[in-house]
Specification:
Among the domains are: about 120 residues, Lipocalin, CATH 2.40.128.260; about 50 residues. It is α+β, with helices and mostly antiparallel strands and about 350 residues long. It contains 8 helices and 13 strands. The chain has a 6-stranded antiparallel barrel with strand order 2-4-7-8-9-12. The chain is elongated and about 165 Å long.
Length: about 350
């Protein structure tokens, strides 16, 4: 009889078929904290840049102004070549053909001599025939005689012809309601009132479309006021002077600026100062929290805390109200298209009108 085979007992846990568990991926705590801090700083920087564009624009405008001043400033060599005294100024050559400066001056001198002689004769005649009463002396005084002679027609034929030609110059009228197309030469900022310049880009013809009344290249001078309303989104511009390319200046009456669609006023970028409003709301919230924490208590310290909290609450409300009432800043860049509407008609001499249209 054989002995039974004794086998070792195997642990059942070792016989279970299972896969090796996957290694868990863990992030480093310090790395995540650093990434979060950098992201928060970037978000805060972007928010600050978005809520404070006027400061950055002011720096850019100042840098551009400095660069422009450096480019416009004349070099030292150019100033050194200028004459030091009047004796070093260049002498003009002989007059060119058609120069009427000398004849006109000579005609004015002759006319002045004639007026002086005539005034002397009339004064002597007035003294001989004047009445004895003092009330009639101003009528024959030399002052009134000289003024009368100066208002009389000139004796020189050349001067009379020139004055007659100037007084008989025909005019062309630009009717009211005419719209002029122009572009801004200088920019606008509604924080302060100022002067604005524009240039005509399209010539204006007469009613028949044959003669140019206002040529392209003419300049406009106007004024704009400071924006005083909180939610105003457009700035009003009034044009006062029209300067033609020949240098003639004409006064405009009630000429308003409009955009391409005809809406009165100009607007390019409107800044409602959201950063200032956010700061006011945040400060008001902090003051309100201080007011809440100061509630309670019947002793003297509690009364003082309550009074301080009430003062903080009123100050916060005023800060928010000032931020809401702050007028918007409207800026218009140079080169912005603009339309000028003539409310009243404009009279122009024919000679000031440029070429004809075919």
């Amino acid at each position: 009889m054989t002995d039974p085979v004794v086998t070792e007992k195997v642990d059942p846990e070792t016989l279970v078929l299972r896969a090796k568990p996957r290694r868990a991926v863990r992030f480093r705590r310090n790395l995540m904290i650093g990434v979060g801090a950098v992201g928060a700083l970037l978000l805060a920087g972007v928010t600050w840049l978005g809520l404070s564009p006027p400061l950055i624009k002011a720096v850019e405008v100042a840098e551009k102004s400095q660069d422009l001043a450096k480019r416009v400033r004349p070099p030292v060599e150019t100033l050194g070549r200028l004459p030091k005294t009047y004796a070093d100024a260049p002498v003009l050559g002989p007059p060119l053909p058609g120069d009427l400066g000398g004849p006109l001056l000579e005609a004015e001198r002759d006319n002045a001599l004639d007026v002086t002689d005539s005034a002397t004769d009339l004064r002597s005649a007035g003294r001989q025939t004047a009445p004895s009463s003092e009330a009639s002396q101003p009528a024959v005084s030399g002052l009134f005689v000289a003024v009368a002679m100066r208002l009389s027609p000139p004796q020189s034929p050349a001067l009379a012809e020139a004055l007659g030609k100037a007084s008989n110059t025909p005019t062309i009228s630009v009717p009211a309601g005419t719209i002029l197309a122009a572009t801004l030469i200088t920019g606008l900022n509604s924080d302060l009132p100022g002067v604005v310049l524009a240039q005509i880009t399209e010539a204006v013809f007469d009613g028949k479309g044959q003669r140019v009344v206002i040529p392209a290249g003419s300049r406009l001078i106007g004024r704009y006021e400071r924006v005083s309303m909180a939610r105003q989104a457009r700035i009003n511009v009034r044009w006062e002077t029209l300067v033609l390319p020949a240098g003639e200046a004409l006064t405009l009456t009630d000429a308003v600026a409009a955009d391409g669609a005809g809406y009165v006023g100009l607007a390019d970028h409107v800044d409602y100062h959201p950063g200032t409003l956010a700061k006011g709301v945040g400060l008001s919230t902090m003051l309100a929290l201080a007011d809440t924490r100061s509630e309670g208590g019947d002793d003297l310290s509690g009364a003082l805390r309550e009074a301080a909290g009430r003062t903080f609450n009123q100050a916060g409300q005023r800060i928010v109200q000032q931020a809401i009432d702050m007028p918007a800043t409207i800026t218009v860049r140079p080169g912005w298209p603009v339309r000028i509407i003539l409310v009243k008609g404009l009279a122009l001499p024919v000679e000031k009108g440029g070429a004809t249209n075919g």
